[in-house]
Amino acid sequence: MADELGDPDLMVPPEPDRSRPGSWVAVAGAVIALVGTIGPWTRTGAGNRVLGAWVPNVRWSMVAAAAAIVLAVAVWRLRGDRSRRATLVVVAGLAVTVASTLAVAFPPTFQVASWGPWLGVAGGAIAAAAGIAITVVERDPSQGV
Questions:
Q1: What's 35-69 look like in SS3?
Q2: Residues 77-96: tens digit of each pLDDT
Q3: Does 95 reside within a domain?
Q4: Within the chain, how many helices (H) and strands (E) appear?
Q5: How many domains does the chain have?
Q6: Sign of CA dihedral 57, 115, 91, 87
Q7: Nearest-CA neighbor of 103 among 90, 89, 120?
Q8: From CA 38, how far away is CA 50, in angstroms rounded?
Q9: In which domain, by residue range, is 89 found?
Q10: Mind listing the pLDDT tens digit for each residue in 29-70?
């Protein structure tokens, strides 16, 4: 009978690939957003230093920095229940993007935005797009042959 049916090891379907490209894109977006919080967020004033987003006052830069931390944790935990965590990645990525955009558009009085918030915009957008892609793939998985 084994000669007729073949080797059972060849009949077992392969394990699904857990390291999808969307996960690595989300990681890249989160890293870019975190690097943005390390740099200066303004060209003068309190945000013109290393870790410029982390100012003691509540500003858009601080909201973006906190959202970047949430984004990094969500991306790190993306390995488990992907659909729920991908939604968190989308929300955190959008929060980083919106807060960073508002930091560019409305910097503190007599100050101009530096390169940090621009990295926040890019990183948040990349991570949010990757989260959306992961969510779409999870809802409509490929059938594979």
A1: HHHHCCCECCCCCCCCCCCCCCCCCHHHHHHHHHH
A2: 876 567 778 889 999 999 99
A3: yes
A4: 6, 0
A5: 1
A6: negative
A7: 120
A8: 6
A9: 20-139
A10: 999 999 999 999 999 888 889 999 998 888 999 999 999 999
